[in-house]
Specification:
This protein has 764 residues and is an alpha/beta fold. It has 26 helices and 29 strands.
Length: 764
């Protein structure tokens, strides 16, 4: 049984090959375990099931004659594509020859659309014809797997996957692998460390696979723009791989530093690595930058000019909230768009990808969740509303466009908030020594496996950072993932401060290069090529530096006004915490399970998220210092309160104590009190100095840091006793929501019927 494909890949369409003058539609043999069981004709809708034996026996070797092998490879290519008028592009046959004939290790660094998938699909067909086992492709994204499976099936290659989204099919996949009826198995790097897969499936696959493919191989490198710790497990896999199993690594985005790092890891055991590298210039792309624009001008430009861009494409935003906000604004203005982010449901992702491929939408407004692997050769444009943190990452995303079109437009609209966003993402990408030491000590002292949730009650590390840290420690051999969580291996581990310092400095340098790209008067394509160490860089003659602006630069006042009005909208839901973190008794906090209804907050509201394009940017400035709330800020907050829709109007206002913004919070609460004609009941007390710790830690420690640190003083208690009904609780910045939760609990315990939380900003 072939499991339902759960994920897409680079297409094996003729866009990846050179075309011969003659045509033709030969039938493609379908191999299963060295036996051709059917043919698929690509000139029409026919399928034949006549079975015949494969010409090569199971132990057949690769032909020694170069010309003979080239002919066989070319025939395999033509069968796979279903045309006789295609031939290899420069470098493709070299890579295939090294893999199939020489059983070598190969790194292919070629631009998107060059045809990297052609290399591993042709090599797979030839290796399977020799009787070899299935190709194993390590692929980083579910979306990438979906494309790869679809492309393989179009080529008559039986491809399956084992990932978190198709667990119900794993038994069928295992049975198909055991029967040798699978040509290609796709797995994520994280799957390599799944205890059951690692122990039961991986040893057999490593022994008999015909080809190992590491897709998006820049993820192997610390220096890569999308470093994934689990990719470093591949080095361990390579050490255990039989010497005669060829290995292919592919990427479209790697500078020389990344290439050197990947080659070093591929060459473990002293193996030589052939690098096939081509020029990265894309003749179809026209690059441009629209700089020095306010948020409303950037959104206004899109509102006015989106439909002027060719075909359909992608509008990238740096944050989820920005993507959703821009998509909503464009949709309200009548544009056919939708948002696509890490929060998008997997089923909706497939639907949205299909709509973009079929040109049913003008654009998807997306985060980097729509990146590697999305395959639409005729993608007409890529617009960035906010700049990625490096030219390498930028090139990777714009490379999605113009693969099979004469022209594709690429525009960057950077924003002043970009640097803050870069800083945030950089802060969570590398481990900290004190946190690593604390995790290792906790596991060693426990003497047994600990779940991630249990570790959180021992070490103050936020969940996302903790998971990354555990992966790094696992790859380095200091911890291991087992049933029930994580365990210490007892092996010594040293924090490589020099290495992480070099990586951090490299990323700062790349951020500066991105700013240089925005400001350069040189050819933009050549600039990107040079940052990728492409020595073929020459002026492209098409970008706005070479040929002048080819895009509209005006933003009509009416559109700017509409954008300003849209970005001025305020109001974000604040969902109350429903459950206490597990294991709080370890931190001296005697709570567990669900939060009691008579101690819980009600649903609340905030003015905006800090990542929002409109008020989010203004609130960043407001929170940089402590000053009384401005009339404009008060008016915006009143707008949120006016649209709240509470079942009963508050009877009074209470301020949460703030050590960073006491003037701001006090003036905000009192100002809302005066405007809304609600009594200001007072401010909660800071007990024993108030909450401890800094924002950014994990849920358990944030709760412990605020537990019993807020109190209802006598004056506030007296005011509350005279005001029966809901109370509006006002705060400045919400991150973990535990300060509000504990403050609300104290108010409820003091007799308040309902607590309605309100904050200026949500950090996230």
């Amino acid at each position: 049984m072939t499991p339902t494909p759960t994920c897409p890949v680079a297409s094996t369409s003729t866009a990846g090959f050179e075309r011969h003058p003659q045509g033709g539609d030969p039938a493609l043999p379908v191999h299963r375990g060295g036996v051709v069981v059917g043919t698929r004709a690509y000139g029409g809708d026919t399928m034949t099931n006549e079975m015949y034996a494969a010409s090569a026996p199971a132990d057949a070797g690769a032909p020694s004659d170069v010309a003979e092998f080239g002919g066989e490879a070319r025939s395999a290519l033509q069968r796979l594509v279903g045309r006789e008028d295609v031939d290899f592009r420069d470098g493709q046959l070299d890579a295939i020859t090294a893999l199939v004939r020489d059983r070598s290790r190969v790194l292919v660094v070629q631009r998107t659309g060059w045809g990297k998938s052609a290399v591993y699909f042709v090599a797979t067909a030839l290796r399977r014809a020799q009787g070899a086992g299935p190709t194993v492709i390590i692929s980083p994204l579910l979306a990438l797997m979906r494309d790869q499976i679809a492309a393989a099936e179009r080529a008559g290659i039986h491809a399956v996957t084992m990932n978190s989204a198709n667990a119900q099919d794993w038994d069928d996949v295992r049975a198909a692998l055991a029967a040798d009826s699978v040509d290609v198995l796709l797995v994520s790097p994280e799957r390599l460390n799944n205890p059951r897969f690692r122990d039961e499936q991986l040893p057999d696959l490593a022994r008999r696979c015909g080809l190992l493919v590491v897709d998006e191989a820049h993820c192997v490198s610390d220096w890569g723009h999308d470093f994934r710790p689990d990719y470093r497990r591949i080095r361990d896999l390579l050490e255990d791989l039989p010497a005669d199993i060829p290995v292919l690594a592919t990427t479209a985005t790697a500078n020389q530093r990344v290439v050197t790092d990947v080659v070093e890891q591929l060459g473990v055991g002293g193996r030589e690595v052939l690098t096939v590298r081509g020029g990265l210039a894309r003749d179809s792309l026209r690059l441009g930058v629209l700089s020095s624009m306010s948020p409303e001008q950037r959104l206004g430009w899109l509102l006015a000019h989106l439909d002027e861009l060719p075909g359909s494409g992608i509008v990238y935003a740096l944050t989820v909230s920005a993507a959703e906000e821009v998509a909503a604004a464009l949709a309200e203005a009548g544009h056919r768009v939708a948002s696509y982010t890490g929060r998008t449901d997997p089923a909706d992702r497939e639907r949205l990808e299909a709509q973009l491929r079929d040109n049913e939408v003008k654009a998807l407004v997306a985060t980097s969740a729509l990146g590697m692997g999305f395959d639409k050769p005729d993608l007409g444009f890529v617009v960035h509303l906010g700049a990625p943190s490096s030219p390498v990452a930028y090139y990777q995303q714009v490379g999605r466009a113009g693969r099979a079109t004469e022209r594709a437009d690429v525009l960057l609209l950077p924003g002043p908030e970009d640097k803050d966003i870069w800083l945030y993402f950089a802060s969570v990408s590398m481990p900290r020594q004190e946190q690593a030491d604390a995790v290792l000590t906790a596991l060693a002292e426990a003497g047994r496996p600990l779940s991630t949730a249990a570790i959180e009650t021992i070490v103050d590390v936020r969940r996302t950072r903790l998971e990354l840290l555990l992966k790094v420690l696992d790859v380095d051999g200091a911890v291991t993932r087992v049933q029930g969580g994580w365990a210490s291996t007892g092996q010594p581990w040293t924090y490589d401060a020099e290495r992480y310092g070099r990586v951090a400095q490299s990323r700062k340098d790349e951020q500066q290069l991105m700013i240089d790209y925005e400001r350069t008067s040189e050819c933009r394509m050549a600039f990107l090529q040079r940052t990728l160490d492409d020595d073929t860089a020459v002026p492209c003659g098409r970008c706005d530096s070479c040929a002048g602006p080819w895009y509209a630069t005006d933003v009509p006042d009416t559109v700017v006004g509409a954008a300003r009005q849209r970005l001025a909208r305020v109001g974000v839901d604040l969902d109350p915490r429903a459950q206490w973190p597990t294991g709080m008794d370890r931190l001296g906090v005697p709570v567990k399970g669900k939060i009691s209804p008579d101690e819980a907050l009600s649903s609340g509201r905030a003015l905006a998220r800090l990542s929002d394009l409109g008020w989010g940017q203004r609130l960043r400035e407001v929170l940089r210092e402590d000053a009384p709330a401005s009339p404009e800020l008060l008016r915006a907050c009143v707008g949120v309160l006016a649209e709240w829709g509470w079942s009963q109007r508050p009877v009074g206002i209470v301020a949460a104590p703030s050590r960073r913004h006491p003037q701001l919070v006090q003036s905000l609460a009192q100002g809302l009190s005066e405007i809304g004609r609600l009594p200001f009941l007072g401010t909660l007390d800071l007990v024993h100095g108030g909450p401890t710790g800094e924002p950014g830690g994990n849920s358990a420690f944030r709760l412990a840091g605020v537990w019993e640190r807020l109190g209802v003083g006598p004056d506030l208690a007296s005011a509350l006793a005279q005001s029966r009904g809901p109370v509006l609780l006002v705060d400045d910045l919400v991150s973990s929501r535990w300060t509000l939760t504990v403050a609300g609990r104290e108010l409820r315990r003091a007799g308040v019927d309902e607590v309605l939380p309100f904050a200026l900003a949500v950090d996230g």
